[in-house]
């Protein structure tokens, strides 16, 4: 334990140390601010570049309507130019997806009818399929037009399947399973499919066998008396 004498000694020592210390006072340094005004610089005069109507603030602006009209004209011209550019872009994009010249050449076929004798059927290749063009005789025409349409599986009169009575144009693909029929064969003198025994007449109509439909008639036209264009 610390006795009374020791306590008195410690108190005296502490006071002595405190008396020897001097307080420190922080003094802020004095600063002087100098502001330099550049009065020797001149402001450029932009009056030659300004409109005469806006040089004086107190003057009424007479060119406001003119500037509005110019702005409207500029916006309208930009809209027209943008629409034309969009049209050109769309046209170029669509034309890039169109068929090429060689594909278009195969899309149509031109046939000289004078090369096909009466009573014969010629076969051509069109769009990767056989095309039958038959030069029918007068007896074949009369025979096909005398058939009762109500008795046919796929009822079609002969008149709606031909544009000219003497010319029959059909795609040579059997409507059953896609075989190629034989011309001038079968029980009805038209076409016969050797795969499953379908018989077509001289109008390309199914008369016997498993085929459900008549032979397809493509789009064709006669540009002149001796030419046929299919496609």
Task: Write a structural description.
- With 231 residues, the chain is of the alpha+beta class.
- It contains four helices and ten strands, in the order αααβββαβββββββ.
- Strands 5-6-7-8 form a four-stranded antiparallel beta sheet, with no helix packed on it.
- The mean pLDDT is 81.
Q: What can be said about this structure in brief?
A:
Among the domains are: 67-98; 109-230, Rieske Iron-sulfur Protein (3-layer Sandwich), CATH 2.102.10. 28% of the residues lie in helices and 19% in strands. It has 4 helices and 10 strands.
Give the total of beta strands.
10
Distance between the termini: 127 Å
Helix content: 25-40%
User: What class, by secondary structure content?
Assistant: alpha+beta
Strand line-up of the largest beta sheet: 5-6-7-8
Arithmetic mean pLDDT: 81
Shape-level CATH architecture of the domain at 109-230? 3-layer Sandwich
Radius of gyration: 52 Å
Strand content: 15-25%
CATH superfamily of the domain at 109-230: Rieske [2Fe-2S] iron-sulphur domain
Q: Could you state the order of secondary-structure elements as H and E?
A: HHHEEEHEEEEEEE
**Can you tell me the CATH class of the domain at 109-230?**
Mainly Beta
- Helix segment count? 4
The largest pleated sheet is described as:
4 strands, antiparallel
**The CATH topology of the domain at 109-230, please?**
Rieske Iron-sulfur Protein
Low-confidence stretches: none
- Shape verdict: elongated
């Amino acid at each position: 334990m610390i006795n009374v004498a020791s306590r008195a000694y410690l108190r005296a020592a502490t006071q002595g140390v405190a008396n020897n210390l001097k307080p420190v006072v922080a003094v802020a340094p004095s600063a002087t601010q100098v502001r330099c005004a550049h009065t020797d610089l001149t402001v450029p005069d932009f009056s030659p570049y300004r409109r005469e109507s806006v040089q004086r603030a107190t003057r009424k602006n007479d060119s406001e309507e003119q500037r509005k009209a110019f702005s409207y004209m500029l916006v309208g011209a930009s809209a027209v130019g943008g629409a034309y550019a969009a049209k050109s872009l769309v046209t170029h994009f669509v034309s890039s997806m169109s068929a090429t010249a060689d594909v278009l050449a195969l899309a149509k076929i031109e046939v000289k009818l004078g090369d096909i004798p009466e009573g014969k059927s010629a076969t051509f290749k069109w769009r990767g399929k056989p095309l039958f063009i038959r030069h029918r005789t007068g007896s074949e025409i009369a025979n096909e037009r005398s058939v009762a349409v109500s008795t046919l599986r796929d009822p079609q009169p002969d008149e709606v399947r031909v544009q000219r009575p003497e010319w029959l144009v059909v795609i040579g693909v059997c409507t059953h399973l896609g075989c190629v029929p034989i011309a001038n064969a079968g029980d009805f003198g038209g076409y016969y499919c050797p795969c499953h025994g379908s018989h077509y007449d001289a109008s390309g109509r199914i008369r016997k066998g498993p085929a459900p439909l008549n032979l397809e008639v493509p789009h064709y036209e006669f540009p002149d008396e001796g030419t046929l264009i299919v496609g």
